[in-house]
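Standup notes
- HV: blocked on the assembly model, inputs below
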Amino acid sequence: MTFDRELLKGSISLLILKLLSEREMYGYEIIQEAARRSGDVFQFKEGTLYPALHHLHRRGYLRSEWRVGDTGRERKYYGLTPKGRKAAQESRRNWGFFTSAVNAILAE
Amino acid sequence: MAVPGKRFDEFIGRIVSRAGRLRPSTRRDLERELRAHFEDAMAQARDEVGPSGDPSAIVRRRFGDAEEIGRAFERAYSLERRAILAADASFLLAASVFAVAAVVLSFQLSIALSMGILPSHAFPRLRGQAVGFVSLALGYVSLYWEERLLRNFRPAPAFLFNLSVFACLFALASPLLHLRSAAAALPFIAGALVRLLQRTSLRRIWCFGALLPTVAAALIGGRLLSTGGETPLWIAVLIRWIGQTGACYLLTLLARSHERRFNSAL
């Protein structure tokens, strides 16, 4: 199944905030996790993730730190800040409203 | 054996340079993160294609277009870039004003001393001159910055635009600065005209950029040149031209040095 790229781009921040609300991850891990959970539907261009991560980081939603991960390599891990947690909850709520509104229209 | 991430250095370089001017620490961090990504992506792609395939082609395809990703980084760091540019522009302008003041005042002092005038009487109109120094530096530097920042920069329209903006600002500021004539605005035209000439096929005669507004002012009315009533008008024009041309030469050197640093930071 192919997805509209713009639709994926628009939802990337929501996905990042959701995944990081569960645990800290580095960029490639986020890509893998999103692909795994979506049954490989979310195979967006991997490069688009990093600007989105940096954008959220600059807005104060994420913190980051370089550390050695399970693979023995140094990776930049991202986690949510308290502001990011709030944003994650709010964006999930907004997404819920949005999808129910779209579903309501489509159902008619 | 080559480090896998190193194979993508040129690709990473394209992304980072398209992202625009970033702080060196941000740039290093970004390069390091992308290199780490390519290490992981290569490890996975190698498993997928086996020993005979080309994993790097898959990795690049999955990653996306360097130009597009670079633009996305540019947007993500737009505030940081603006802050860097504002600081850089302010620093260059301050250095330019200082350079202009140093050249003109030294020249003025040497003339005063050669005429037997005491150094304490060598600068009778220092406040108006200070505005002139800022005007000259602004005229030159504003065109220089537009060249750096505007993708479709065209010297002549930019020159006219700057002139109009400066005329409005000058009209607003002159009552506050208690300026009695438009004399302090002339150096702006001189600075901008010098830079304009330097960007055209007439670059060899850039030094006449400072002469034109001075001569025009002398022809319109000598009062704009404030000779003090004792110095013949043609000498006042000559002195002004030499002083401003010397200052513009220093501004040219400053701009060249800045341009080298600016381009190497991209």
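- HV (later): unblocked. The interface with chain A takes residues 15, 29-30, 32-34, 36-37, 39-41, 62-66, 68-69, 72-73, 75-77, 79-80 of chain B (CB under 8 Å). Chain B has a mean pLDDT of 86.
- Next: hand off to the docking folks.
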